[in-house]
Amino acid sequence: VNGRNFTPAVIEPSFGIGRIMYSMFEHAFYTRGGDGNEARTVFRFTPLVAPIKATVFPLIQKPELNDVARKVSTALTTAGMSNIVDTTGNTIGKRYARTDEIGVPFAVTVDFQALEDASVTLRERDTMTQIRVPIAEVAALISSLVNGTQEWSSVLQLYPQVSKKDEEEA
């Protein structure tokens, strides 16, 4: 019986992309209270990591609102921001909840005020606060928020906030 010492030259840890993705999902997932007893799920991806940076919602199905939504979407795409235009007939709250669930950090809502003064509502997912932004500035603003050159807290100082009551009246 001979004894032989063997020292491995390679140690291969089992740490593939699947575990990294799972860790990212686990870290970003949480639930927050919704209306009534319903808890809503949210993926809190940082804007830079989120696969979709913004969604664009016309408040209701009207051709003039849909046209403005398409223009905002085109501006976001031109700025290099992946986005989705949601023209479903659901309420705005359900559309916000659906995009929070997949981790979209920003939502742009096109309402009738957009036709009057060329401004839209920009909502941030984590704080659920909303501001009024000129359409001409929204793509650059979202781009700076995604790239980290601006923080949401500083943006709140630059643009007027929108209350839920104001949104319901629009």
Automatic annotation (TrEMBL):
One Gene Ontology MF term: glycine-tRNA ligase activity
Q: Which domain of life is it from?
A: Eukaryota
Which GO BP terms, alphabetically? mitochondrial glycyl-tRNA aminoacylation
Please report the stretch or stretches of sequence annotated as the Anticodon-binding domain: 54-144
GO cellular component terms, alphabetically, are:
mitochondrion
Q: Which Gene3D superfamilies match?
A: Anticodon-binding domain, Bira Bifunctional Protein, Domain 2
Alphabetical list of PANTHER family matching this protein: GLYCINE--TRNA LIGASE, GLYCYL-TRNA SYNTHETASE/DNA POLYMERASE SUBUNIT GAMMA-2
Question: What name has this protein been given in UniProt?
Answer: Anticodon-binding domain-containing protein
State the organism of origin. Haematococcus lacustris (Green alga)
Q: What is the lineage of its organism?
A: Eukaryota, Viridiplantae, Chlorophyta, core chlorophytes, Chlorophyceae
